[in-house]
Amino acid sequence: MWFNQKKSTEQDNPQALLDELVSNGIELTIDELIRYQTKSSLINLAASKSSHGKMSGNYLARSKGRGMEFDEVRHYQNGDDIRAIDWRVTARTGKTHTKLFREEVERPVLIATDLSTSMLFGSRLLFKSVQAAHVAALVAWHAKSRGDRIGGVVFNQQSHTELKPRSRQQGVLHYLHALVKSHADSIQIASENEDRERTKLAFEQNCARLRQLAKPGSLVYLITDAFSLSDEAVRHLANISRHCELVVCLISDPLEQQLPDSAQKISVAITSGDNDERQQFILGDKALAEKYHQQAMSLNDSIEQQLTKAGARLLHFCASEALETQLHRGVASWIR
């Protein structure tokens, strides 16, 4: 489900909610991203697949060996380390047993945030780009609380900032400041005529950069509306998922999925973030509304199929509700 069709109580007083979020919904500030430091316990980034890394750190690999975390006891086999013999079990059973451990490995967290022109759109509360930055901030603060190093890529169709993983609060703040700067740049260039092929190429190139940054065992987040997804980008993402855990957070807006209800036919013009051309729609035309919705669902299905085939785990977020509200309602594999 790409958005919640039920009317949210947040819509009754959107300005009060924006004040709580320290946001105007359009521009991005460092204060609204720092706010998520106190919200990091809302999610859990525990690894859901085997770690492939060889570095020492905070996560348990499924490979057995000497390490910090006890795993199990089994019969001694030739070649086992005699220092790991469990003498109590050996004495009790009369047969030699050895202890096995899970090796702890480090897992850098890489976040790629798409702030391209199509993300500069929002019909109710926040621009998709602002919600994407909120998701990125929450992931970064939670990763920091677990002792992970944080890095990644922040990009739009014209520029990118590549950040190698850093530890502690320095890594988080470095990433958050990159979000704020890139978002301001995106707004500044939004009035320029967009070359869709150039935007697709930029998306592919940044997926390739993410692929180069993602060392085996990393946890990789891509936060985007996936409007610029291409076969080449999917190829890069599939390569990442072979060696890392890949999570794609898809950001949507209700107006992209379904036209508003209207008791009478009303002609409205809508300008989307990825196109300066104003599109005319007739509200109250049930046939048109159904066609619009079906086209949106078809696009959604295509995007989901490509990303799932690439080995990504998908999470959906809507720009019309506060991130906390959506998390409290339940986002698969993120709720504690």
UniProtKB/TrEMBL annotation:
InterPro entries: DUF58, vWFA_dom_sf
Limits of the DUF58 domain: 72-296
Protein name in the entry: DUF58 domain-containing protein
Organism listed in the record: Cognaticolwellia beringensis
